[in-house]
Design goal:
By secondary structure, this protein is an all-alpha fold. About 80% of the residues lie in helices and about 0% in strands. The protein has helices at about 1-20, 30-40, 45-50, 55-65, 70-90, 95-115.
Length: about 120
Amino acid sequence: MQFIWAVLGLICVALAVVGIVLPLLPTVPFLLLAAFFFARSSDRLHNWLISHGTFGPLILDWQNSGAIRPTAKKAATISIAAVFTFSILISVPTYVLLIQAMVLGGVLVFIWSRPTG
């Protein structure tokens, strides 16, 4: 079972890396999942992830207090606004825009309602 947890963690890290450059793919949720999987499979991989200079503090903030740093909140907001603007510019059907607005609005409410790290 540890092997499966480790593989799932590595897949999540790979998706997080791809999410750095693709605005529709979130980075931090995949890193949080990777930390969860690594905690159950490998102390070495878990320690590597939470001691990472960029991602470690974000993961520890979430694990300790459910907090999201202001810079991460701002980056998420800008990314969401860019995606929604792009959808408008490429003339996505109105019903899709409405669904997208509700989902992305819910994501923003969740992000901004979390404590600040």
